[in-house]
Amino acid sequence: VQFRFLGILMAVAIRTKKPLDLHLAPWVWKQMCCIPLGAADLEEVDLLTYRSLQGILHLDNSVINEENFTVMIPLDSFVAHSADGTSVPVIPGGHNVPLTFSNRNDYVERALHYRLHEMDRQVAAVREGMSSIIPVPLLSLLTARQLEQLVCGLPEVSVEMLKKVVRYRDITDSHQLIGWLWQSLEEFTNEERVLFLRFVSGRSRLPSNLADITQKFQIIKVDRVSEFYSFVFNCT
């Protein structure tokens, strides 16, 4: 249920062009777009497991052979660690299937397949949730990066972007105060600019297409500065 609801939220973000601050593994976006996964995708998110599997697959035959394999390799059956660290069989009854020098290639193939597809049910539930709002089959026309940007917007908030989503009232962009504002924001880290964006607009991400922003934040000139604290009006 939770994953289906996540799919609904993601579809709403696409429809309303209100990005979500989500941080998902790159291969999840690929699966959402029905893009086949490979060993490189595991390497990107779990380098230790990837290297372990590659080490078993590409043994130095001058050092490890059929006789000393079980001594040199710290695995004795067809099991692997899942994403949460749990030891799981990669084939039915895998705990009782010994890992040997001769079947190591089959083990690596099975373990890799398990890791790449252990989230299939959850991804299917997310797609099901999205299908209630948007035509999910069209996602196969997108790249993983394009889908991520549609749902999450842009992770980086630059000063140039902020300049494109602001409007001025009783002051111009050439005013010295405005220059100071942009100069200060240039010195901010991206995380600090995200906080600024949240303060002035209530959002943490900008859509990938800035033309989708229908409500810009407004800078208003105030003469009696000493009587006011900084404030914003955030209407949704």
Give the biggest beta sheet: 2 strands, antiparallel
In CATH, the architecture of the largest domain is 2-Layer Sandwich
Number of strand segments: 4
Unreliable residue runs:
none
Q: What's the level 1 CATH class of the largest domain? A: Alpha Beta
Strand content: 5-15%
Overall morphology:
elongated
Question: N-to-C terminal Cα separation, in Å?
Answer: 28 Å
Helix content: 40-55%
Radius of gyration, in Å, reads 26 Å
Number of helices: 11
Q: Quickly count the domains.
A: 2
Tell me the CATH superfamily of the largest domain: Hect, E3 ligase catalytic domain
Keywords: Transferase, Ubl conjugation pathway
Active site: 235 (glycyl thioester intermediate)
Protein name: HECT domain-containing protein
GO molecular function, one term: ubiquitin-protein transferase activity
Question: How does this model look, in words?
Answer:
Keywords: Transferase, Ubl conjugation pathway. The active site is at 235 (glycyl thioester intermediate). One of its GO terms (molecular function) is ubiquitin-protein transferase activity. This is HECT domain-containing protein. InterPro entries: HECT_dom (IPR000569), Hect_E3_ubiquitin_ligase (IPR035983), HECTD3 (IPR042469). With 236 residues, the chain is mainly alpha-helical. The chain folds into two domains: 1-153, Hect, E3 ligase catalytic domain; 159-227, Hect, E3 ligase catalytic domain (Hect, E3 ligase catalytic fold). Helix content is 46%, strand content 6%. It is built from eleven helices and four strands. The strands form two sheets. The chain has a two-stranded antiparallel sheet with strand order 1-2. Strands 3-4 form a two-stranded parallel ribbon. Strand 1 and strand 2 (87-89) form a beta hairpin. Helix 2 (26-32) crosses helix 8. The two termini are 28 Å apart. The relative contact order is 0.14. The mean pLDDT is 88.
